[in-house]
User: What shape does this take?
Amino acid sequence: MHSFNDPLIMRQIIMDHYEHPRNKRTPVHLNYRHVHMDSASCIDDIHLYVLMQGDFISDICFDGIGCAISTASTSILTELIMGKTRKEALHIIQQYEAMIFEQPYEEDSLEEAVVFRNTSKQANRIKCATIGWDGLKRLLHE
Amino acid sequence: MFDANKIRQDFPMLQGKMMQGKPLIYFDNAATSFKPCIVIDAIKRYYENESVNAHRGDYDLSYETSMQYEKAREGVANFIGAQPDEIIFTSGTTASLNQIAYGLANSFLSSGDEVFVSYAEHASNLLPWFEQAKIHDLVLRFAPLTPEGSIDVIGLEKMISKRTKVFSFAHVSNVFGYVNDLKSIANLAQTRDIMLVVDGAQGAPHLPVNVQDLNCDFYAFSSHKMCGPTGIGVLYGKRNLLNQMAPLIWGGGMNSRFDSKGNIGLQETPFQFEAGTPHIAGAYGLLAAVQYLETIGMENIAAYERELRNYAVLRLKEKVPGIIIYNETADTGIITFNLSGIFAQDAATHFNSNGIALRAGLHCAKLSPQHLMTPATVRASLYFYNTFDEVDQFVEVAKRGGDFLDAFFQ
Assistant: This one.
């Protein structure tokens, strides 16, 4: 966990997920829950897909166009949430939101996602760092 | 003599304002502009010394306010070479263009008539037309663009038909920054009996505008992009067209009398288009803004911005490897670019963390990527109070664009 405090490593993690996003694909099957996240003020245009098996998230993926922050934060989200239960996923999202909005949060449950802990310093990027997370929350409440 | 540093003293926002711990460099003037003291004072004067409604009161204060409000109309008319009764105060360019689209569709156009717009237009000059086209079965067509992104007049001439009734184009595109050849477009329009609507949001603040000289039928612009307050804008229209055009907003102040059967007598132009209490303080502020701009001189403003812009483009090309500038040869203060390999939004964060305000994205012209072939751009837009020093600092920050994640780890 401590290595995530090293700016150099945090930077590498973001760039790695931006340049090689995980789970970036559009599913062929139609039984995925789907949400289209775009915004009037920026170019981010991301589709998020979730496949539920009972209470489990058996697959999560995304596709579309986004900046480094939105792409990397969504990529990290998919890795973190894959295979979790709905309840676990909602808990992780809650911790992430707490971190983004500078509230107390459980660092351990966020793993790599802690690289976005400084987002509030660039308030205009909060929507980039949360676009995929907001989408997942919406899908899990469907 | 034009002296940007002296001019800056007129603007409270340019007195040492900081952003991210750095002196603010404001390069988002195509979005909105800063206000000089005299504009702020004019607004204050209304609220502190008058504060009553125009047109309605039977008492001295209200009479005085009505006179001042009409004085603002005269000042704006003078600023663009129009007559006062051809000037309608709206809430801004968007409201003006909505009134024009609604008015033309309801009073002049019929099913199958063609309206020409372009891929370079702002949402405000597209969506009102899309909506009216749906309701009135109009045909929306797209004028061809030159490789730079201005209207290709020769190509346009080949596309028009007997059903072409309206051209609706920007004076200056808010993405490309080129000045459209309105004179040629107006000539073409006139010989074919086509009405010419001009979105002047990026024109009036930066260039001398004379609507008679341009020979356009309508010209719309916003106060806040030209040192005036937000919430007020202008719709210029030729008197005979305005007199035949249906109002979009109905209510108090625009009717002469009405009865319970719904027979409504309308006020004369321009009042029939100004229902509701107008933005009186806004009109005072706008008058102060046009007088301020006239004192500096619109010719001087246009010349200085061109010079500053050319300098910025030259320096960016010289010092920032891999930069893509999409409108190198444009004639206004809009510079649209991308830093090599950096998503526009990420670049904007990098500039923000260095105190530089500019915009990333599509700049409300969501059809423009079809012309630019890129999903998003960064836009620096200059005004006459920006300086060569600011451009130098901007270029230095642009050079370090690859460090855009620094913003997250400082």
